Amino acid sequence: MTAHDGAVLRVAGRPVGRYVIRPELPARLSPRPYLHPVTTLAGTTVTELTPADHAHHLGVGVAVPDVEGHNFWGGRTFLREKGPTELDNHGAQRHTAFALRDPDGFVEELRWVAAGAELLRERRTVAATPLTSTAWALDFTFSLTNVTPGPLSLGSPATNGRPGAAYGGFFWRARKEAGPPSVFTADAEGEDAVHGRRADWLALAGSGWTLVFAGATGATRRDPWFVRATEYPGVGSSLASTERLTVPAGDTVVRRIVTVVADGRPDRDEAAALVGKAVAQ
After folding, report:
1. Cα–Cα distance between 26 and 195 in angstroms, integer?
2. Where are the alpha helices (DSSP H) in the chain?
3. Are 5 and 18 in contact (CB under 8 A)?
4. In this structure, what DSSP letter does residue 190 have?
5. Cα angle at 203 between 214 and 254, to 5 degrees?
6. pLDDT band at 1, cuts 50/70/90?
7. Contact 106/128 with Cβ under 8 angstroms?
8. pLDDT score of 272 more than 70
9. CB 232 within 8 A of CB 53
10. CA 193 – CA 187 distance, rounded (Å)
11. How far apart are CA 95 and CA 61, in angstroms?
12. How far is CA 128 from CA 15, 21, 40, 42, 281, in A?
């Protein structure tokens, strides 16, 4: 482990995820801690880091494209009158300390900084739990506290005028393969049918692997899913879908997403059972 590494997650002694806390990345990518590689129990990698199609996609983490005009997502900023625009407005998430670090998880303190000022303070709790001989769960909670004197407004390209682009919050850049993955919920199938909609859980299935995402709190389940399958494989939970999210001074926004990481292709009933077991733990 180098000085830039933070932790290695293990399930029953088997490494399933590497967490990097101080990545050496250009400011344009909005440097931030991330999980990569994340693997199934059989060893299949199910994340990507700085892929050619979107260099600012960093495995699994939290990213918000608009925090009072500061870009904590990376890449270009969508402006209502100009579209995607290169701006010198990128923020960074800075690791402060681990409040807890065990083989199966950690609690981390972070500072969200832009233009020389701290905007948000985050507590991130991540745990890896075994489910079956072919599946485990990544339990990911983030709490964002506004540490500025006034309200902070969080937005997305969708709230800034780009329909269907409500990304921002928890985001998982998945493994890219020769063909697009399939995506389904309990009652819908296909990218068009699930993107931008709410569902208790959502599955992304590739060649020999499946990810099943679930909001584990009422507030998280109210956030629609951001889904990409054809252009690239990625799933997120949208903090600002149709309108901006305002966080008053001193207030905290909390979201918890549990992701089942499975070998093979569980059917709908199996996916629902795995999610139920993971969230209950």
Report:
1. 30
2. 191-194, 218-222, 268-280
3. yes
4. S
5. 20
6. very low
7. no
8. yes
9. yes
10. 10
11. 13
12. 10, 17, 12, 15, 11
pLDDT at position 3, please?
A: 38
Q: Residue 6's pLDDT is what?
A: 85
Query: Do residues 230 and 191 lie in contact, with contact meaning Cβ atoms separated by under 8 Å?
Result: yes
Centroid of chain to Cα 61: 4
**Residue 16 one-letter amino acid:** V
Rounded CA-CA distance 246/224 in Å is 17
CA distance 246 to 243: 9
Pairing of strands 209-215, 252-263: antiparallel
Residues 129 and 225: beta-carbon distance below 8 Å: no
Calculate mean pLDDT across residues 57-83: 97
For the purposes of burial, counting CB atoms within 10 Å of the CB of 223, is it exposed (0-12), middle (13-18) or buried (19 or more)? Answer: buried
**Contact, 40 vs 261, CB < 8 A?**
yes
Strand partners, 169: 63
Of 168, 16, 5, residue with least CA distance to 95: 5
The 3-class secondary structure across 91-155, one letter per residue, is CEEEEEEEEEEECCEEEEEEEEEECCEEEEEEEEEEEEEEEECCEEEEEEEEEEEECCCCCEEEE
State the average pLDDT for the chain. Answer: 96
pTM, whole model, 2 decimals? 0.97
- Could you give the CA distance from residue 66 to residue 114 in angstroms, rounded to a whole number? 11
What is the rounded CA–CA span in Å between residue 125 and residue 259? 14
Which residues have C-beta within 8 Å of that of residue 273, sequence separation ≥ 6?
Answer: none
